[in-house]
Design a protein that fits this description.
CATH topology: UDP-N-acetylmuramoyl-L-alanine:D-glutamate ligase
Strand content: 25-35%
Number of strands: 13
Radius of gyration: 17 Å
Shape: globular
CATH superfamily: Ribokinase
Helix content: 25-40%
Strand order of the largest sheet: 5-4-1-8-9-10-11-12-13
CATH architecture: 3-Layer(aba) Sandwich
Order of helices and strands: EEEHEHEEEHEHEHEHEEEHH
Oligomer: single chain
């Protein structure tokens, strides 16, 4: 059985002084790194530019044994996000350039490759919608991340195809549960809503399961949401029920807060 894959953005996260550090990032690639860290043979489909940043991203992915055969190297710039971190550990996006990820469209070969995977997690630009549709039609479980700024319209378009819709809601549990119910009502088989420091919840088979945040030493919150997704997906691939999957996700998110950058050092 093949392992999971992700499709969507990859970039360089550039921490401004006083940290002054480049780390690999991008929502989809971060999830791939989390799945690989869970011991799953993981692939990523996306795009980087013909520049030093692109070579940096590919080299760091190779260190994690992420299959990047279907990452397109395109004329142009790799995505770049400038970041600062508050004394409390909250990451702040000072600027964001998507670079070649903004208009990336996977090749037919890449789509056929995704159809062979055990799970495909997607984020990102509108040009991946056709690929996600084709993969889901091939019987592969698909999840999609609706993050800030919310891509609600795209969620509504994709919901009938999704095994899990991933969302976020910083408000109360009632608001989060309503968001999950809306996603499921529109066709998603399950929905997971991250609530940051207040934990997360999952709606599946008509039942809402809530999970508190795991204890964490917060150094940098960048990538915590992506780590939660990777933990949930990895656990579901192992056959976990919602409570167990959320527990894995919460622990992965807490671990991600304990270091600078979305990926921990090897």
């Amino acid at each position: 059985m093949t392992g999971p894959a992700t499709i969507g953005e990859s970039c360089v996260d550039r921490y401004l002084p006083p940290i002054g550090l480049d780390t690999p990032g991008g929502n989809a690639l971060n999830v791939a790194a989390g799945l690989a860290a869970a011991g799953l043979p993981t692939a990523h489909v996306g795009a980087v530019g013909e520049d030093d940043e692109g070579r940096f991203v590919l080299a760091r992915a190779a260190e994690r044994e992420i299959d990047t055969r279907h990452v397109a190297v395109l004329p142009g710039r790799t995505g770049l996000t400038a970041i600062t971190v508050t004394p409390e550990g909250d990451r702040v996006f000072e600027s964001e350039e998507l670079g070649v990820s903004a208009t990336f469209r996977p090749s037919d070969e890449a789509v056929e490759f995704l159809k062979t995977r055990s799970w495909v997690h997607a984020t990102g630009p509108a040009d991946i919608v056709d690929a996600v549709t084709a993969v889901a039609a091939g019987g592969v479980p698909v999840s999609y991340d609706v993050y800030h700024p919310p891509r609600i319209e795209r969620l509504y378009e994709l919901a009938p195809l999704l095994a899990v819709a991933f969302l976020s809601a910083p408000g109360g549990s009632a608001e989060a549960a309503e968001l999950a119910r809306d996603a499921v009502a529109r066709g998603a088989r399950a929905a997971v809503v991250s609530r940051g420091k207040d934990g997360c919840l999952m709606l599946a088979d008509g039942v809402v399961v809530e999970q508190p945040a795991a204890p964490a030493r917060v150094v940098d919150t960048l990538g915590a949401g992506d780590a939660l997704i990777a933990g949930v997906v990895a656990a579901m691939l192992e056959g976990s029920e919602p409570a167990g999957a959320l527990d894995c996700g919460a622990r992965a998110a807490a671990a991600a807060c304990g270091h600078i950058g979305a990926w921990s050092a090897i």
